[in-house]
Amino acid sequence: MALMIPVLFAFMFTTFEAGNYLWTEHKIIKATRQGARYVARLPFSSFNCATGTVENATMLAQVKTTMRTGSPTGAGSIKVRGWTDSDISITVSCISNSSLGTDKGLYTSKGSAPVVTVSSRVKYPAIVGLLGFDTSNTFVRSQAQAAVTGL
């Protein structure tokens, strides 16, 4: 029995760490998808296809805050410890109307169809890091794309 206790503790701790990683990854993936949907609903005038950026800085800040806290005002708590706005990247790429074929839908009057890419690269807050193990190079990454609908 005395030989089993260290093995059981190691197994139990590994299970906790794996569960924490999966839960953290799930929260980041879900928030990244939510951020892509949020940006995709901004008006077409908010996007600059030439520079690949979102022009509305206030809305961009709200998107990042919503991803991290679940609220545009930042009223909620941060979903993942250590997640900052600098960990979030939002870019725009534009697909030419000529490559869309004959059925352009809501992009008929536009010169191109903007597609938003939202990416997150968050330092993983590992449980083993609290015990002194080096986890400085452990990150959770997520990326989501959405076509801009301008609604």
TrEMBL record:
It comes from the Bacteria. InterPro entries: TadE-like_dom (IPR012495). Residues 1-37 form the TadE-like domain. This is Pilus assembly protein. It comes from Croceicoccus marinus.
